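Researcher: Batch entry, complex prediction.
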Amino acid sequence: MSASERSESLSSRPDRLLSRYAACIVWLARYMERIENLARILDVTETFARDDRDARNWLSIVQINADEKRFFAKYPQATAEAISRFYVLDRDNPTSIAAAIACAHENARTVRPLISTEMWSQINVFYNWVRQLGESDIAPWRISSLCAALKESCQLHSGITEGTFFRDQGWSFYAMGKYLERADQITRLVDIKYHTLLPSVQAVGSALDVSQWNALLRAGAGYHAFRRVCPRGMTPTAVVGFLLLNNSFPRSLVLCVQQVEWYLTQLRVRYGLRGGTRALEHFDALRSALIDQSIEQIIGSGLHEFLDWVQQQLNRVYAEIAGAFWETPQEQSQQQ
Amino acid sequence: MQGGLFQRYDAGGFFCEMMRPAGRSEAGIDLVVERLARMDLEDLRRRANDAERELYNRGITFTVYSDKNAIDRILPFDLIPRILSAAEWTQIERGVIQRVTAINLFLADVYNRQRILSDGVVPRELVLGNVNFRPEMIEFKVPHGTYAHICGIDIVRDEAGQFLVLEDNARTPSGVSYVIENRHMMLRLFSDVMSGLRVRSVENYGMALHQALAELSPQSVTDPQIVLLSPGIYNSAYFEHIFLAREMGVPVVEGRDLVVEDGHVWMRTTAGLAPVHTIYRRINDDYLDPSVFRPESQLGLRGLMEVWRSGGVAIANAVGTGVADDKAIYAYMPRIIQYYLGEEPILPNVETRICGEVDGLQYTLDHLEELVVKPVGESGGYGMIVGPHASRQQIEDFRAKLKANPANYISQPVVKLSVAPTLSPEGVACRHVDLRPFAITGERTWVLPGGLTRVALRQGSLVVNSSQGGGSKDTWVLE
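Model: Structure tokens for the complex:
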């Protein structure tokens, strides 16, 4: 940042936000969102993986997180037990819940002057609770209730945040982090699950098929909403279309992308921040890809390629936001 | 009257802050004793557990470093309050203001005309040769002549109930956050004991601090941006940094958030660089500016000293205040007060001998078993020895260290610190306490009513430092 880029709005001091705080609040939101998504996936996998496809289902969690290399360095097989240990307890695994809550806690500690006391206390209690979890908590008959408790802790965090977090710039950065992460998570989930489950589409009508697609919807708490939208049946295309393109479903890709864009626009309009112009261009591209195409068209021209492109766009959006609001020129050049 | 909690309480011949000696009772204190006496031990333990859980859940913790481990611990909190009468507080308040005034006059003098040195009141070498004397400060005029904007004065009480100053903290004293958090805890958990009592509020510390810091800022600024400069989340006092920043409504910044440009200090915000006018720094002199002090420091800001000297930014506390709170200078404090103010100290010192002086060393070596000996450069209770509590071996080891570097030590008689009833595993028992009132000085000095009462939780222990097994109590100043 050079002297010529100094803030002009000197009179509105409460609107000032330290760059480092902006980064930390984004990451606080991302980690909490990540924990909730992971708990959801572990829960439905545990509930619905009950047959010879067991291993494949558990394996999909490894694939969603792109953890194949690290996971198989530690465990020979993707069993329920190994997955639970790796993703719940293992602090050395950076994609585990234990690691994510530690990061969330550290970010919360940094932005403690910004967040409410209630937000901080809850994260602190959550963190201390996860820290003392042990082997007995991930026993097969307890994993479901553990996931429910983890999920509820995240939801408690969301509720406290919604009810107590002061609505200044920090709030917009928080929301951007949350929806960016959620968008990223839904694309990973759909990408892996669609291709894992697709071969079974041929065995039309088997009870298991439907339960697997149900499980996918339940992982995003979208089952009942989907039934309302598509009461007459369930096709893989309809499920994927719902998860990606339904603009009322709170975890859909399109809704998350629109939310990120909206909060970025808020930062520019309401607080006069000038950064993020190029991120808005990425949003234009994302929007036309998501709104101007039907799910059939997307699948027709390659779902995996499409989701891959969406993830890259989301990464570019994040990089633009980081570059505009908190990274110093040195940090940016280091990453290039 | 002494039923319930106090049934087996025995102050052991020490001055007790709660069970005052005959003729020195105080209506407000007696009322609290009466109420506590009606409480049973189980009830008190339940409340104490609630308090501990709450402190832990809210992350009101400090970090203890041992070897490679860093452990978050709560500062143990004892619910039985330490109470001061209005008259006692008036004496402390006046004494603290007097002391802080003298400290600031002393600092202004030693960094400018050095009259007190020319007049031979304080040995020149003791000041100019002190590791905390900063030649960079010579002839630099600080706003209002104030160097030590935030001061903590450690006060103890002897067996006769007389208040004595044990130590001055004029660098970056910590602990005030606990004063306020302890009060909040008491309002939640001890409202029945407090009810109807007129206890002076501690709520306005943040506003007073903000005002004093604003008074320092460059004069042309009407609405200054204040920041708290912290070493970061791994610092043991980070909780306090956050607490104070929140109370003032200002950001906690680290060195990497700041830049020096065009003779001003700026912080990096999402909207670009924004000006900073006053820095409440909670990092030591050494780390403040790598271009002047430790070149390897990552915590401070390069060029800060130059901006400060040219009036582009204000810093509290000023650099170089450590020369005034040094344990060797402490010994001269009564003479310093006399010299600048022409007054007797309202709060006397504990009798102190300087081991760097021949007589002082001889006396100390001859009486090691009876004395407390402290290194001059340290704080936090590290490196000291309490003669009557030390083993023969410890005393001999210490004797060798003392002889090797006598100038590094002072000695004092063991003060029989006052006690206060405190919850212990065996029930309510007497434990030694001290008091650290906090003074803020902008254009004038203001003292937060009460202060941090630290309590040595181990039976018989005189060391109240949190790093050495100390806890804290809420301090009530009665109106």
